[in-house]
Amino acid sequence: MWEHLSERAIDRFWRGGHDGRMVELAQSSQRRSQRVFHKMRLQALGRSHEGRKFREMCETLVVSAHGGLLNLLHEVDNGEMLVLVNPETQEEQECRIVYLGEPGNRGTRVGVEFLTPAPHFWGIDFERPSGGSDNQPAH
Question: pTM for the whole thing?
């Protein structure tokens, strides 16, 4: 069942071309949600730098209700789409690549942003930033 969603999501957002640049995520002192150091294995599905579909097991470094930072072995492009699958719950999250770090011996650090916030995807209860009301998301 999840393969159908994943293939559709990857094909829908793949643009085919790239300009080879790596764009870094702008640092902000005000975040939408708390970040937590959390190591977790999960499956990532997407398209590589060459446009080939891939599926790999990867590991998170830092997570939040809006995305996370993980190590990927496949070369990917900034702005491309990934589908992450939580192996414990089989829940899927579509996300966009928003940061590419330097390649290392464990792969490339890849920052992803969920297309829709998913505070329970990681199995962690995130605290709301101070100043946010219950009815309005904090930005």
Answer: 0.70
